[in-house]
TrEMBL record:
Stated name of the protein: Fpg/Nei family DNA glycosylase
A Pfam family the protein falls into: zf-FPG_IleRS
Known cofactor(s): Zn(2+)
DNA repair listed as a keyword: yes
Domain FPG-type, chain residue ranges per copy: 243-277
Keywords, ordered alphabetically: DNA damage, DNA repair, DNA-binding, Glycosidase, Hydrolase, Lyase, Metal-binding, Multifunctional enzyme, Zinc, Zinc-finger
Catalytic activity, as annotated: Hydrolysis of DNA containing ring-opened 7-methylguanine residues, releasing 2,6-diamino-4-hydroxy-5-(N-methyl)formamidopyrimidine
Residue intervals of the Formamidopyrimidine-DNA glycosylase catalytic domain: 2-93
Domain of life (superkingdom): Bacteria
This protein's record includes keyword Nucleotide-binding: no
InterPro entries: FPG_cat (IPR012319), FPG_N (IPR035937), H2TH_FPG (IPR015886), Ribosomal_uS13-like_H2TH (IPR010979), Znf_DNA_glyclase/AP_lyase (IPR000214), Znf_FPG/IleRS (IPR010663)
Entries under PROSITE patterns matching the protein: FPG_CAT (PS51068), ZF_FPG_2 (PS51066)
Length: 292
């Protein structure tokens, strides 16, 4: 799933390639992906891409004041195409292609564009056409962006203060902090040497400062690694930069302990017992509930 660093990189990538270009048309192949009807998606045809920005994990193409807002969800991705002039018209069907955005040809006659694809059977990828990105419910509800300078230690202290949820859940709640998902919350907690099950409100001032440092450093490093990469190379880069996420059974590169996995909410999380939980493996609550 693309999270803040990958979406930030896609934002730069699209800004360099799409800004200033006219949209020829937007083909919606997976009808369920389009979440709005006014303005219609056809309204984008003939408009010029004037800006590309990011809101949490949402991509926002400003096209002369009409915004195409994209949420790639768990299995979605963006694929840049250098020339779509010979591309076949797309029919709704089984393939991964959800949306195709065609741009006007350049001086060399190449008509580039990009495609939004979604793997798997769970279709969550979402696009919105709107005059105001804040009308998108997921955008309107976003918490502060951790790369914004207003995200200070004090801001994090206000967020965790009195919050009785586990820190892992808090970190990936988009309404609390924008842009962090399952992978980077594992990475942040490993960097902060903190148990994912720790209750937010119990953090000391020193732990909040450590967590803040871990959030900002982890995301900034990932953004730097991803910077300048082509969209197609981002997935591999994300995977290679992860220290605990999806690395169950492998040695921790900080202490050498074996990375473990435990179920959490609708998926699972990975962590290093020595670095994060005093050497003690976390109990799998789902499993222990089943055994009772
Ligand atoms: Zn470790």
């Amino acid at each position: 799933m693309p999270e803040l660093p990958e979406v930030e990189s896609l934002t730069h990538f699209l800004r360099e390639r799409a800004v200033g270009r006219t949209i020829l048309g937007v083909d919606v192949v997976a009808f369920q992906a389009l979440k709005t009807f006014d303005p219609p998606v056809t309204a984008l045809g003939g408009l010029t891409v004037t800006g590309v920005s990011r809101h949490g994990k949402f991509l926002d193409l400003d096209c002369d004041g009409v915004h195409l807002v994209i949420h790639l969800a768990r299995a979605g991705w963006l694929r840049w195409r250098e020339d779509l002039s010979g591309a076949k018209p797309v029919r709704p069907g089984k393939g991964p292609l959800a949306v195709r955005v065609r741009l006007a040809p350049d001086d060399e006659g190449l008509a580039p564009g990009f495609e939004l694809t979604e793997a798997g059977t769970q279709k969550r990828l979402a696009v919105y056409v709107t005059k105001n990105p804040d009308d998108v419910p997921g955008v309107a509800a976003l918490g502060p962006d951790p790369l914004d300078e207003s995200f200070t230690v004090d801001a994090l202290k206000r967020i965790v203060g009195g919050n009785r949820t586990q820190i892992k859940g808090l970190l990936r709640d988009q309404k609390i902090i924008a842009g962090i998902g399952n992978a980077y919350s594992d990475e942040v907690l490993h960097a902060a040497k903190m148990s994912p099950f720790k209750i937010a409100a119990t953090l000391t001032d020193a732990q909040i400062a450590d967590l803040h440092e871990a959030i900002v450093a982890t995301l900034r490093e990932a953004v730097e690694r991803a910077h300048g990469l082509a969209a197609k190379d981002l997935k591999a880069e994300k995977k290679s930069g992860l220290r605990v996420h999806n690395r169950t059974g492998q040695p921790c590169d900080v202490c050498g302990d074996t990375i473990r996995e435990v179920s959490f909410a609708d998926s699972s999380l990975q962590y290093c017992p020595t670095c994060q939980t005093g050497g003690k493996p976390l109990a799998d609550r789902r499993l222990s509930r089943l055994l009772k």
